[in-house]
């Protein structure tokens, strides 16, 4: 089976990694190469070692590595970097003159200089057709305006985070993972926007680093407000230190003490057992209620009103029902046919109820003059 040798290449620091065919070139991590892309030739860095795969598993539209970067290629890249600074300055002047509500972030020249890409941020859609005309007349090349988000802006600009180190997104973080406020709550952080937000104004990416660890350690600890049995009695959990596996409890006498999770192993097992098996707890409570009830109530033979004294109305109804049952009982000498014949005669003697005639419905339509 035919195999291919792929290598991972990135075009920016902490940028996305793309696979390219090595084409029998001996490449190592850290080398700079010239590759063929959909936008033309580009200068990239090898960030992943070459690996062999089957030709059927290759990604679609796979491009190849042209050659290793030479000194002339590196000099051309430095020249493009200087031209990018001039293009950025000129474009900002045109944006200020036209009073356009957009923020220019970066200008990027392609390796062969055939196009300039301007990255900007804006709250909504911007009509930059006239701006593109001015730029094309000045630089005599193709112009592309690309709108990006605030996170991508921080990645391109860079900076120092609240931790005192360089931003993660512009050093090694290649993809942005979703971050929620729930991650900050789980780690016990203060929900202050200035403390949990980064330079881009969004939640810090580092909130997702230890989120899974906190969830694993929190499984062995009860929540705040939970009551746990101790040797001295039942205590209520006031605060929990997840990383240290300790908790602050309040006893019945009002004393507060710090207890380790291992010391509360018996109590925690009981709490977790009740939490994980609520059906067993319900069965145990129902069995306890059955034991408290008398035997007659559990068997269903006893009457709930057995201890009540019947009043005169109840006596009359019971006596009338007994008489009716005695009358309904057939005589010892009568047969079933005689009983049915007598029943038919009694029914024929009873006065039949006359069906009440329903009044005819009258329509609300006006009468025609002929009928009137």
Report on the structure:
- With 372 residues, the protein is an alpha+beta fold.
- Among the domains are: 67 residues, no CATH class; 73 residues, 2-Layer Sandwich (GMP Synthetase, Chain A, domain 3); 61 residues, no CATH class; 56 residues, Roll (SH3 type barrels), CATH 2.30.30.140.
- The protein contains 11 helices and 12 strands.
- Strands 2-1-4-3-5 form a 5-stranded antiparallel beta sheet, with no helix packed on it. Strands 9-10-11-12 form a 4-stranded antiparallel beta sheet, with helices on one face. A 3-stranded mixed beta sheet has the order 6-7-8, with helices on both faces.
- The protein starts with a strand and ends in a 23-residue tail after the last helix.
- About 3% of the residues have low confidence.
CATH class of the domain at 76-148: Alpha Beta
Q: What is the second-level CATH architecture of the domain at 76-148?
A: 2-Layer Sandwich
> Strand sequence of the main sheet, in spatial order?
2-1-4-3-5
Strand content: 15-25%
Question: Could you say what the CATH topology of the domain at 76-148 is called?
Answer: GMP Synthetase, Chain A, domain 3
| H/E series | EEEEEHEEHEHHHHEEEEHHHHH
Give the radius of gyration.
Answer: 44 Å
Brief summary of the model shown:
The chain is α+β, with helices and mostly antiparallel strands and 372 residues long. It has helices at 71-98, 129-139, 150-157, 181-186, 193-196, 211-218, 265-276, 278-292, 295-299, 312-328, 336-349, and strands at 3-10, 18-21, 32-37, 40-54, 65-68, 103-109, 115-121, 142-147, 227-229, 234-241, 246-250, 256-260.
């Amino acid at each position: 089976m035919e195999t291919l040798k792929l290598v991972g290449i990135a075009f920016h620091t902490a940028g996305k990694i793309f696979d390219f065919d090595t084409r029998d070139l001996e490449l190592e991590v850290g080398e700079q190469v010239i590759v063929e892309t959909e936008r033309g030739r580009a200068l990239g860095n090898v960030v992943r070692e070459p690996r062999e795969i089957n030709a059927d598993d290759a990604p679609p539209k796979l491009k190849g590595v042209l050659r290793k970067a030479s000194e002339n290629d590196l000099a051309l890249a430095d020249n493009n970097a200087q031209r990018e600074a001039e293009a950025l300055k000129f474009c900002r002047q045109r944006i200020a003159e036209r009073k356009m509500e957009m923020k220019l972030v970066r200008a990027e020249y392609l390796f062969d200089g055939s196009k300039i890409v301007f990255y900007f941020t804006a709250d909504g859609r911007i009509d930059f057709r006239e701006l593109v005309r001015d730029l094309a007349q000045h630089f005599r090349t193709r112009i592309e305006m690309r709108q990006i988000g605030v996170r991508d802006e921080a990645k391109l600009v860079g900076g120092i985070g609240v931790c005192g180190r360089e931003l993660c997104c512009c050093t090694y973080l290649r993809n942005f993972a979703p971050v929620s406020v729930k991650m900050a709550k789980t780690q016990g952080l203060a929900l202050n926007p200035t403390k949990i937000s980064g330079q881009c104004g969004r939640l810090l990416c580092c909130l997702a680093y230890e989120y899974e660890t906190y969830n694993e350690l929190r499984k062995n600890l009860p929540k705040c407000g939970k009551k746990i049995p101790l040797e001295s009695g039942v205590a209520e959990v006031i605060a929990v230190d997840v990383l240290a596996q300790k908790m602050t409890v309040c006893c019945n006498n009002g004393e507060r003490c710090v207890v380790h999770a291992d010391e509360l192993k018996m109590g925690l097992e009981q709490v977790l057992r009740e939490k994980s098996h609520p059906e067993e707890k319900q069965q145990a409570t129902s069995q306890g209620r059955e034991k408290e009830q008398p035997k007659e109530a559990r068997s269903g033979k006893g009457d709930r009103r057995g201890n009540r004294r019947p009043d005169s109305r109840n006596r009359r109804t019971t006596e009338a029902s007994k008489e009716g049952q005695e009358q309904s009982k057939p005589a010892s000498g009568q047969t079933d046919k005689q009983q049915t014949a007598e029943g038919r005669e009694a029914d024929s003697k009873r006065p039949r109820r006359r069906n009440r005639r329903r009044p005819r419905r009258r329509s609300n339509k006006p009468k025609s003059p002929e009928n009137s």
